[in-house]
## 1
Amino acid sequence: MSNLIVEIGNTAVKAAWSDRVTLGKTFRYQGEKYQEFILSLLRKEKARVMVVSSVFPLTEEDISAFSAECGALYILDRGHKELLSSFGLPPHLSYDRAASIIAARYLFKGKGCTIVDFGTTLSVDFISEDGSFSGGNLSLGFRTRFKALSRYSRSLPLVEIPENPEPVGHGEISSIESGVVSGIVFEIEGYLKMHPDNVVVFTGGDANYFAKRMKSSIFVICNLVLMGLALIADDYARKIG
């Protein structure tokens, strides 16, 4: 595995060694010392190309530290948007969404896709049969909805993710459980009806949780973002020779 790909998200850092679209072992870290975590991976093996996608702009210190430990560094954050246009994607997309789209294009070439990412935010993106991006929406993620109910209502408790929520609540806790879960299911079912012939791909931490609650056939690819970043790394490696 010659390339190292890293996704710095809202709640965790994910990393993996890659060879084209093939991923090696995935590493996960939660905490503030993300730089040290990433450097610890590079000390074990030097990357030919390292791609870092981040939800926040990386510091000059980060970039300098990473550059010293790899052959070539490719940063994907708010300050580095040039990659999006080269893949025919609009500048407003976050790089996790862009990477998912790039991976889906590769995996389901010639087919329209509906991509649903169950993360801190819930994103739904559509690509047409020719691979062009045809729009997408954002809303609150699964766990974020529970937190929002508790935070913005003085009377409601913070509820944990239910294993088997009731179809309709009959108490305070079950009403919150059912309301959040059913709300997301109905939301996604509505999106799927918009493009009924599309391949449906679920990704993100709660993909399996909701895939088993859907009536449609679903492809669950939990590492779709990392696969997209692996393709970006491979493309960059080819360009630099």
Note: The helical segments are 34-42, 60-67, 82-86, 95-107, 142-152, 172-194, 207-211, 224-240.
## 2
Amino acid sequence: MSSALKVKALAKNIRMSPFKIRRVINLVRGMHGLDALDYLKFMPHKAARIIEKVLHSALSNAENNNALDVEKLYIVEAYVDGGKTLRRVQPRAQGRAYMIRKRSSHVTIAVGEKK
């Protein structure tokens, strides 16, 4: 699959933990593009809406920018990387402080045709 054309779409600085997004993206990796959109539409997770949006963007990029047939596209790559972490402090008893980490994510989805 390395020689075939891959079309990517990115979503950066999503305000959700990468762990929560990965559990959804692992389910659709390798699926047919349109089947994955239908699958994500009925998932109850917030991460499914984010991945659905990125996948739709990748399919649109392939169709409009590279003139590929959407019916033949599969999810070739799908991964989530950690983004910036906002650090906040929660006061605790007896003068202590507890660190709160508000994590963000970068979502990448690449679609292409299978041979």
Note: The longest helix spans residues 46-66.
## 3
Amino acid sequence: MELRINRRALTALAVAGALSVSSLALLRPDTGTASSHREAPMIAGDPRNDNTDVYAFVSPDKPDTVTLMANWIPFEEPVGGPNFYTFDTRSRYNIKIDNDGNAKPDVVYQWTFRDQDKRGTSTFLYNNGPVTSLGDENLLFRQRYTLKKYDEKNGWTTLVKNGVVAPSNVGAASMPDYATLRAQSLEKLPRGGQAFAGQADEAFFLDLRVFDLLYGGDLSQVGQDTTKGYNVHSLAVQVPKADLALKSDPGRNPVVGVWATTDKWSPSGYRQVSRLGNPLVNEVVVPAALKDTFNSLSPDKDAGIPAVVKRVTNPELPRLLEGIYKIPAPKTPRADLVEIFLTGIAKANGPIKADLNSQILNKDVDAKSFRPSEMLRLNMAIPPAASPDRLGVLGGDPQGFPNGRRLTDDVVDISLQAVAGAAQTGKLVQALAAGDKVDANDKPFQTRFPYIPLPSAAAVNQN
């Protein structure tokens, strides 16, 4: 019975072809309601609400826990004073978890922020002397936060009432030991968890010249880490697996779906203006006219909108690879990409013959309520790899992307391989084997939570 139900869901996705008038009307952008990565047309004016990356992985040093992380504010220039970067006090920042496969959040971690500004009319400075602790009186501006959790059993509960955001890294004279400030910003959560909010290194490594006709039209524009030296603002929790699993039982129900959103206050109330699950979906899957509205949708709406589904079953990027580099585009409809982006990977779901990270693998999931949707899916039962492969599942490492996402996963190279058909054959597409030649972050990742490197204090432009 379960197999038949899921096949019907996939069939419905595959045949959702031409755009209907009603679906186009539903997808018409609503001004003021959308932003996501910098690629979305409306994001330029609202970077504080721009969610740049989502990560979900079994904690390598605490494998009984999972680390969830989301970053905001792209391309923070480290020396961008005197007003450094902050979270938006009018917004709610969320990391959401679906554990039963109905594409609706079963667990939510939500941060809200408030400013503590002591500068007044006396100074323009962020700090008026060396800052050696988060409580140092020389730190004239700081943000505090409240972290709440929602789950279906307990409703909303407050985990952190008065957390302090790790500040922007002004420089060695102002913050001679920034690592201490990071350590002091970590908050303990009930049941042995931890939380973090603060500035961090931009850990997404890639060569963004991919948008210049796919690396210059001849793969000559590769090897330059475009995000090197920039910072972001990061939110993270490390929690026991049982806090996320369906019925609090990660043994029976190890798979969860994860995405992040930003809700911004408007006169009509809070409205979702940013959404992110899998990396690069809005960049290279969703077309320009649909990007803003995609960011305002909840995942349970995805499968019902042919305009969105068509971009998965009949994607643009393989056709571009064929036209520019003569790499044959796989036949459509792309049921393999439906698994990767919309259902999770399971033998019952499509052509990828592996049980990896679909919520239908959870023993207590009701197959009748399962709904294809775009989110980052993680199988918490797969232990951390002793030597993580940057290509994740395609590199023979099942603990990597698209099974969740680790900081070390080279999601650009993985995604290019996937859209070119590597998931269908189980072999790398050799014409793209070198990828963008940016294989690791410029800074090493830390061995303990929150793992993301400390923010840079040096100017990006060193010329």
Note: Residues 2-432 form one domain.
## 4
Amino acid sequence: MSDPRQQTEPQQEPPGTLGAMHRRPDHGEDSYRGAGRLAGKKAVITGGDSGIGRAVAIAFAREGADVLISYLSEHEDARETGKLVEDEGRQAVLVAGDVGDPEVCRTVVDRAVEEFGRIDVLVNNAAYQMTHETIEEVTDEEWQHTFDVNITAMFRLVQAALPHVGEKASIINTSSINYDSPRPTLLPYATTKGAIANFTAGLAQMLGERGIRVNGVAPGPIWTPLIPSTMPPEAVEKFGKNTPLGRPGEPKEVAPAYVLLASDEASYISGAIIPVTGGKPIL
């Protein structure tokens, strides 16, 4: 059998699926060990079918949380993630739909409240990106869609969820190293990630008096289905090799940051952005 690490990764249609990948990401399926840090918590994770979202769902379940997994249309990947959550004796709720649609945002929150009664942790992780060499290649529709999915959905989800969260709740937004070091070929995506960092900082101040913490995680190059579905083959081949650690990260290497921020151990952490970048600095 050939080594998947030596095969050229097939180009996929966005947002990509795990089943089409030669080298599957490591979400911590066989390695993450929980310690009850999120016992009894109810969590919502957008983009939870694969990649960072799946790794966070696994980690949250093994730490004792029930999880709603919001995803676009990758039904098989989402079902696999749901089973991994249920294998830990936790409840998994799957909700399909594009969070760029305001009605889907409301549905995600409504289902969480219907199934769980409340929301303790909201992880805004869903994202869209495409690679372009020139700004002329970016259509008005793509620019608007990128903003709708990456940042406007966060606003809508937070606004809908607030009546159902209490003190000690945690909101965690996925930003990116691109908020500090924007990659020009990912201009719409990188621009939204800068907006997410500012949204996180402002919202933390706005919600502090309610006892609600708001933080972000800024991943560097993490190996997920989004990469071979949104980047040209030559970029995929070099992906992550320019980091000080010399490789892309695995989703399981990002999940512990979310666990910390979701846990009561982070009770005085709000307005922070945690970089997980393989050594590339964020200033």
Note: The first helix runs from residue 51 to 62.
